[in-house]
Design brief:
- With 133 residues, the chain is α+β, with helices and mostly antiparallel strands.
- It has one domain (3-131).
- Helices cover 42% and strands 28% of the residues.
- The chain has 2 helices and 5 strands.
- The chain has a 5-stranded antiparallel sheet.
- A hairpin with a 6-residue loop joins strand 2 (57-67) and strand 3.
- Helix 1 (3-36) runs antiparallel to helix 2 (110-131).
- It is elongated.
- It starts with a helix and ends with a helix.
Amino acid sequence: MDWLDLLKGGLLTIVPAAIAIVGGLCLLYEWVFMLTAVQGKGTVIRIDQTVDSEGDPMFLAVYRLEPSTGEPAIEVRDNLSFGKATLKVDDVATLYYPPGQPQRARRYRLWLTLVYATLTGIGVYVEWLVWSR
């Protein structure tokens, strides 16, 4: 066994483990957030346009959040921008935020949770393949 085999074996162990750990921690964070989050109704009041590092347009929704706790309405920006506007002005979305912190409100995106779960699954599966040989 030479150093190249050791390097390959090490990378085949470390990389999938890192992917599984990062995916698992993100998934855990998302679950804990959703279990403890407070809901509020957000109405899109405008769509901000920016450009990404390559000069392409990106769109970011800005909401008027009406917290369900009876606090006054505030303005919050979405935490993700997209190359295509996914919402229109006056669209209503459910926003979630940590208790007492409505300025940190965000939409729940199932696809993001699925990405975390997929990363975790791929990392665990590849790690299992490495250790079962």
